[in-house]
User: Fold this.
Amino acid sequence: MKPFHQEQGIVVPIDQANVDTDAIIAKQYLKSIKRSGFGVNLFDNWRYLDPGAPDIDNATRRVNPQFVLNQPRYANASILLARKNFGCGSSREHAVWALDDYGIRAVIAPSFADIFFNNCFKSGLLPIVLDEQIVDGMFARVAALEGYRLHIDLPEQKVTDPDGESFTFELDGFRKQCLLEGLDDIGVTLQHAEAIRDYEARRREQAPWLFEEHA
Amino acid sequence: MPGKTLYDKLWEQHIVRQESDGTTFLYIDRHLVHEVTSPQAFEGLALADRRPWRIGSMLAVSDHNVPTTDRGDGIVDAVSRLQVDTLDANCDAHGIVQFKMNDPRQGIVHVIGPEQGATLPGMTVVCGDSHTSTHGAFGALAFGIGTSEVEHVFATQCLIVKKQRNMRVRIEGEPGSGVTGKDIVLAVIGKIGTAGGTGHTIEFAGSAIRALSMEARMTVCNMAIEAGARSGLVAVDDTTIDYVAGRPFAPRGALWERACAAWRDLHSDDDAVFDKEVVLDAATIEPQVTWGTSPEMVLPVSASVPDPDAEPDRVKADWMRKALQYMDLPAGKPLREIAVDKVFIGSCTNSRIEDLRSAAAVVKGHKRSAHVKLAMVVPGSGLVKKQAESEGLDQLFRDAGFEWREPGCSMCLAMNADRLEPGERCAATSNRNFEGRQGHGGRTHLVSPAMAAAAAIAGHFVDIREFNGEQPQ
Ligand code: SF4
Assistant:
């Protein structure tokens, strides 16, 4: 996983609550057996006017000029500003892969759905929870100010706006560590292989039916 | 010290190691695997030169991409076929137990786990699929994970997680006739919203839940994720144990007795404390119909499409407007006057034998409305299909003008050939009415199996409580 330290970038606003993972990456793209290439189909149903499919060249599709990702002012955005309960619905990590592949490094919202939030850390995408009022303020400013950028400092757990105003955010210590170091958490767990084996031995005594094999 | 909740007990039994900040290495007993969220995990494992920790914990099946029509010719769509073939190859390479596409036991992963007894009380159950919450109906701690976590469980049999908060949803009293597990859970979501359970594990309790069959409890827990909770739970009782007894993967003989004794403790203590509690009176719950593009956009069938102008919260009102525009519905229209183009009975929410029985009872002796282009029944598994056929349900459906299909996810999310065309409106027994969920531009209304069946006959939504009595033969 790539590490995360700082990010300074253009902010793109998705001004809608409860954006679900079906909207972030539509199901037809889940047929891929790869982990990359999802960025062109991020928010597919909103971004294009005609339906897409894995075998359709996206360059031939009609884009929806109304949709934020298609507006030049938000080109190359790396920070997504969202409303509450972002990423609800399915467990598809493809939603995170699509954001990451598009170039989004962090998502700011008043709240996230649990599985999505969790998945973010696996690809080095930083989900930041800020107060609803602060997020409201950011939505107002991003609309008013073309080229609105934010600076994110992970070690300090701080988001700073163009006026120099800063907002701190909470983050679990273990997750922060993994992001900063770009840790492979399977490697972390395997350091405790002994403890896993001990647990299994104990558990096998207490509840042997959990270890029955079936064909 | 207060007593423990069921969630507390399940959690404690699975701690391999806990850090001082609460970060926990949690042991996973059962890992269910399907074709969509596993290929990248198998690939990751191979790239890192790692092997699965405990093959015996895994059970795999392809369900999302499989065709529901004749399977003699295999899968026509090459992209879908590759995904299914990839799962087959991965399972063969590692020796993982898998029900292949033409195995009579094949079906939707959340239907076959319980059906086989592969889901047992007291287990931790994970799958790269959010509706893994279904298995919580057995008093198992079950939740959906992303693909990286699938790889993590492959390699370590553990997950790195933090404990969630305890929430209880109590449904007390007796529901009226025509009110099913689906209506109960939709009513709960309508009340607490799609983020109402975020950060919590929801235990469904109360006399109305106790009275539900295992299948209905699965329907309720299935949609815990639609209320924002990764896991739903129901305490173990006789209903649970009777259901599990004798299933192929369930313990037998002396081991069965030992297991049952242990399972009897899988309930919240009387003095357990919950961080959040919601209570609903079952008698006030009516059959439900969703009107928008989120499961929380739901109302009793007797209601009308709500008016966004009457919603004081600006963000919410905008959201409602956008939903109504997508759904092409005017505020104030009675839900019962909404006409449907297609009807889908299936999905891990409502494709078990009881669901099919209840829908078949409604269609018996009637014909699909001429306005309904397609009504399809997709059993949750090959075994459900076989059972239904032995009861003659397939014939009742066929006689009523329904299509009787092969098991799979089908039009729940339209990854195979079953889908809505743009603008089409569907009465569906599945769990998500998100934009485009059943096909680009498709419009989904979530209902119970009986309500879906009745809509197919009438051509529009009807109150199932009235339909039973007066529909002419
Ligand atoms: S039936 Fe629908 S919700 Fe259930 S596992 Fe399949 S796609 Fe997911």
